Amino acid sequence: MESRFVNALLLLTVFTFVHLINSEDFHLPRLNPVSIGHEQTMHLESGRTLTIKTLAVNPPIFEIEDYLTNIECDHIIYLAMASSKWTESTIKGKVDKDKEIRKFNFTKGDKNNDNFLDPLELWNVMPRLQNSLITIEDIPEFVQLYNYDVDGDEKLTNEEFDRIDINLAFQWIENKMKKDKKNVVRLSKQVWLKHDSDEVLRSLKTRVVSLTRLPKGVVDSSEQLQVAQYDIGGHYHGHFDTLKLDKRQCLHSRELDGIKLTEPYDAVKYRLCRYATLMYYLNDVDEGGETAFPVADNATVSEKVIRAGGNIGDLSNHCKDANLVVKPKKGKAVLWYNHLHNKDGWVGDKDPYSYHGGCDIVKGVKWIANHWITVDTDQQRHIRFMNLREKRRGVERAKQEYNQKQEEQAMKQQVSSQDTQPQQQKLQKKQHQHLRKNHKNQHLPQSELIGLEDKSYIRNEL
């Protein structure tokens, strides 16, 4: 009976907490970069004023010094270190070998139709392993190791290409990943923190709403905070935080399909949909650890680096070749957009200029936190997802309020009981004295005192 009453009360109370969203009052703003070097201000509730500085226009990239206080940075690191759920980037990963084999084709590689594959063309069709980075500079080593270039002209004919054993290619890549950390795309360890699990994290989420001007529901329904640690040699080669638009649904809203976040998901059906990235530097790095945007504002750098025999995503060797390099500094935040807007002002396709990565740690250690703002490319689906999350938060808040009221009521009863205890003792003593007077000096049997709750003073009287 009591449980039914509690459930009914929760259902009634939850509506006082939930603000459901519809398409009429929902929009997706973004900060205007104006021009490189442009500054705009942000006022915090604490009274602090922050400066938002434009670092790039395409994609819009902003830098905010002292976005986090030293205490907030240290607290986030403390929370991360206290967690037991750390994961490390792996050297060996799964790969769709059938897909890689289909890609490994001479005709597909011969872009200029000269019946030869030069190192760049061979690199384009070489198989990949998950978390592996093979650069154009590595290709001559592979060709020479197995003597595939019979005539030594640094090009492969169709016949020479056919001699390549793709299984040996997979093995060669795996060996390079084990031998040299630079051939691993990401070398770090990371942990996830729930935004609502801590007062500091909750306040940061509120600050994100103020910074981005995004609806609170968007920020509330985004991913947990990822904290990452990079030791010496640690890096994250060039990558995108999101994926291009296709027929797949967004990964973060898979709960709408009945798939729990803790359950495995099918990458054929789901993709990342990270509208924007807000990255925090949690400490000062002695040397290295910059965040590089190789093609920010101008894609010609890719041609420049490739012609030099390099790879724009190889940030171990080409960090300084990036168009934009941001140095780490404790408390600094960097905001950028991973998606364009479509004609309706909603999430458009992936912005190719948002390609970025983390350069090698030369000395010291780097701590960062990533706050990814996830937005479904299907507006109505995202609204349904936000409302689902809001209902769940409403239930949790209703439960918390109910439990708090129960605790307060119990405390009042306890205090009330403590206040009335002396009065009860006085009344009991007066009753006992009345009994003694009527029985003169006779000692009363213990059985006649049954019903008096506290008999301590009676023992003293007798």
Can you offer a commentary on this structure?
- With 462 residues, the chain is of the alpha+beta class.
- It folds into 2 domains: 29-89 and 186-374, Sandwich (Jelly Rolls), CATH 2.60.120; 97-183, Recoverin, domain 1 (Orthogonal Bundle), CATH 1.10.238.
- The protein contains 14 helices and 20 strands.
- Strands 1-2-3-15-11-20-7-6-4 form a 9-stranded antiparallel β-sheet, covered by helices on one side.
- A hairpin with a 5-residue loop joins strand 16 (339-341) and strand 17 (347-350).
- Helix 1 crosses helix 13.
- The longest helix is centred in the C-terminal third of the chain and has 60 residues, at 379-438.
- The protein is elongated.
- The two termini are 48 Å apart.
- Mean pLDDT is 84; it is low at 8-19 and 440-462.
